[in-house]
Amino acid sequence: MAMELTEAQVSALKRAADITRARIDYRYLLALVFIKSKLGISYEKLTGDEQNLLLNLSKAVSEIAGSDHSLKHMVNYFDYGQFSGVRGALETIEQLLKVLDETGFDDPGSLGGAFEWLLRYYALTHTKEGEAYTPREIVDLLVRIVNPVAGETIYDPAMGYGGFLIYSYMHAIKNCSGCSASVYGQELSAIANIIAIMNMQVHKIKNYSAYMDDTLLFPHTVEGGQLKKFDVVLSNPPWNLYGYDESVLKKGDLVKDRFQYGFTSLESADWAWIQHSLASTKQKDGRAGLVMDAECLSRQGNDRDIRSRVVDSDILDAVILLPERIFYHTTSPSSIMLFKTSKTHTGEVIFINATLEKEPHREAKRLNYLSEENINRIVRAYSSFNDINGFAHVGSINEISKKGYNINPSSYVIPLSDVEL
Fold first, then answer.
1. How do residues 16-50 score in pLDDT, each as one tens digit?
2. Which of 2, 11, 351, 375 could form a disulfide with 412 if both were Cys (CB 3.0 to 4.6 A apart)?
């Protein structure tokens, strides 16, 4: 969805990324791309004033933070002045500016593409960063299935670096001149929140609201004392988050509105995230798509009780089991759950076992990824909502209940490598 970069631009970004290695935090490179997008400052002009380069960059950050309330904390995380007197730091930043200037990242599309390329690069090479970054082919798959359209409201309760919000927005306004959509996100991590806002702004998204807080306890998407409802909810929340049992969740806000199906155990907040997302979805024509750890599809105890109530309420529309090793920060099996408040196929759920839909990752040998063909096969299977031997099965709520409310597609479909769609 982000603009395709030229080979020269990708080469320049790789050189810039190499320059940051073990020298300065890569986030300062992201900030340079953002400053260019936000203020239109010439890299050449900055490097031409070598004596005041760090000061000018710090002033640029202060100017942005002072004029944009959503980025008021940016000065706490991007202080170029701290490099003053640090051996080699000034030269490193000068090198970065010159490399970026070589290929002329001058238009909004290329700057947005550069920002996304850097996020992906560092998520691949820094395992910790992968926690806030969802591989964009997974984002693309989910956005294409849920299909947000112009004029709708879109929400991510654990927005990380903002990928779902950006892709959803771009999908909604595609081929629609003058159209718009409104995106909302919340994120606990301050630096991830700032990067997400930078990412949205560099993509020229204006209709956004971004909040920083613990969503499970203190959601900020509230109107008139009630939880705001959205047309579309898309998210990849942190999996198996520890510490959110009944005693903790009851200390938060709007508890009865959000956790009507039950409370999670201390060991995993997976179904707390799911319930919050469902409570944030409009009761008419609302859609929610969540990327979750596959364990929550069959886990017993509190999860099983909550899961049974959700299934019986007939809002679960589809469960997709994803291939192994497609996320950058974990090897845990993963899944997608799709919910609709106005279902076409009432009383039924389609299970898609897409564990074989993968290709070896081109840059990281330990990983796999979804190709365009893989994505198309999954989308077609969901759209058909029919049994496909070795790939998809449409199950009734009664059938699910007989399986103990286990909703892992592997319990319904044994994959075949030669299935034709």
1. 999 988 788 889 999 999 998 888 766 666 666 66
2. 351
